[in-house]
TrEMBL record:
Cross-referenced InterPro entries: RNA_pol_sigma-70-like, RNA_pol_sigma-70_dom, RNA_pol_sigma-E_actinobac, RNA_pol_sigma70_r2, RNA_pol_sigma70_r4_t2, RNA_pol_sigma_r2, RNA_pol_sigma_r3/r4-like, Tscrpt_reg_LuxR_C
Source organism: Nakamurella leprariae
Highest taxon listed in the record's lineage: Bacteria
Composition-biased stretches (Low complexity): 1-16
NCBIfam families named among the record's database cross-references: SigE-fam_strep (TIGR02983), sigma70-ECF (TIGR02937)
Protein name, as recorded: SigE family RNA polymerase sigma factor
Keyword vocabulary terms for this entry: DNA-binding, Sigma factor, Transcription, Transcription regulation
Record family assignment: Belongs to the sigma-70 factor family. ECF subfamily.
């Protein structure tokens, strides 16, 4: 990822050589990638990658991504299930497994947007408690600092949250975020910069 991406010149996650002007919020966001371990590669298969292969290796990472966008695991699983259903319907038009994973990310972002819109129109909706909505696995490995950032992420505007989650949690480049969200690369960069500043302000106000 280039040094100008996401409004930051951050080094790799955990890199002690990260620039001194990188904000504490950006450093913490950068470590969120640890909450999304890379899926184990599937065993060598005699034929091409199948939908079942992608489901086994990428379903949980997509669920974790959706949890950060919609705030509760049940809704996240619904979003991801629908994304895989769409993948099945469009399988013949996809070039390869990389295109399929890109399709899934975009479908998860769009499905999360639809879920949030439906919630805004449902008067009886009660937001889940942030302390119990996410999976026990994710919460168990979060420090108090991480929990503060993740909770504050839920209060950002949806577009800002999408960009930060895809950038810091998903580890995507500006181009990949633009593809997943339908935004231009310039909008991705400016949105990330504003979101980091807003997130830092919210966290400072609470400490």
């Amino acid at each position: 990822m280039g040094p100008d991406e996401a409004g930051s010149t951050a080094g790799p996650t955990g890199d002690p050589a990260a620039p001194p002007h990188e904000s504490p919020v950006e450093r913490t966001l950068g470590t969120l990638a640890a909450l999304n371990p890379a899926p184990a590669p599937p065993p060598p298969a005699p034929g091409p990658v199948t939908i079942d292969d992608l489901y086994r290796t990428h379903r949980m990472s997509m669920v974790r991504l959706a949890i950060l966008l919609v705030d509760d695991q049940a809704s996240a699983e619904d979003v991801v299930q629908e994304a895989f259903a769409g993948l099945f319907r469009n399988w013949s038009s996809l070039r390869d497994s990389a295109a399929a994973i890109g399709y899934l990310r975009t479908a998860v972002v769009n499905g999360s947007r639809s879920m949030l819109r439906r919630r805004r129109t449902a008067r009886a909706y009660v937001p889940p408690d942030p302390g119990t909505a996410r999976s026990a696995e994710s919460l168990a490995i979060m420090s108090a600092e991480h929990r503060a950032v993740v909770t504050a992420l839920a209060e950002l505007a949806p577009r800002q949250r999408e960009v930060l989650v895809l950038r810091y949690y998903g580890g995507l480049s500006e181009a990949e975020i633009a593809e997943a969200t339908g935004l231009s690369k310039g909008t991705v960069k400016s949105t990330a910069s504003r979101a980091v500043a807003k997130l830092g302000g919210m966290i400072r106000d609470r400490t």
